[in-house]
Amino acid sequence: MKDIVDEINAVHRETGRRGIPAGEARTVLLRRTYDAPAEDVWDALTDPARISRWFLPITGDLRLGGKYQLEGNAGGEILQCEPPRLLKASWVYGEEPAEPGGSVVEVRLSPGPGGETVFELEHTAIVDPEWWAKYGPGAVGVGWDLALLGLGLHLRGESIGDPSAWERSPEARRLMTASSGAWGAAMAAAGATGDEIATAVANTTEFYVPDAGSAEGRDTTG
């Protein structure tokens, strides 16, 4: 596996706001380049057997207008599907309503000049202001950083092995800590104050990398 610093630096991160019909939404955006053709990246994102190798087991009708469910995580509806360049889906937990303009994940692929693929993931959601003040974009951003790491390893023919065991490893804790700090830098670029950044980074880091013996669980993608 690449060095943790290299993995963190491979991703460009942004956070912002977007006005949508249901209210004011927050956005997190991740961009990185994979040394693989767009068709292979697209297949890894849409083939259920491959998704389960780098992300989570998935069930459902994986076509435009179909519903999907990630095991123990989010589900929703496929809103747009334009292979091999655009995939957009609602992102809903449990029984919460999938309101128009609610939580949405959009993945965009574009070919690079040398056969590589530029990958962008943008997650847009209406967020409780108190929750955002406590955690900022890192609450979902760290989870997406882990997902992008898993995808990159899969495209290189590698694997982290048992995800549950790996997330407790020193290497994973370093990556999640560094990711939380990187999302703090994205907050700074978006105009957040020093106090806002410090609060969000500290709480997000504690959430993903709790002190030894903590029983607090983690949801790594949202």
From TrEMBL:
- UniProt superkingdom: Bacteria
Q: Where is the Activator of Hsp90 ATPase homologue 1/2-like C-terminal domain?
A: 35-148
What the entry lists under InterPro entries is as follows: ASHA1/2-like_C (IPR013538), START-like_dom_sf (IPR023393)
Gene3D superfamilies in alphabetical order: 3.30.530.20
Q: Which CDD domains match?
A: SRPBCC_CalC_Aha1-like_6 (cd08899)
* Pfam family for this entry, one: AHSA1
- Family in the record: Belongs to the AHA1 family.
Q: What is this protein called?
A: SRPBCC family protein
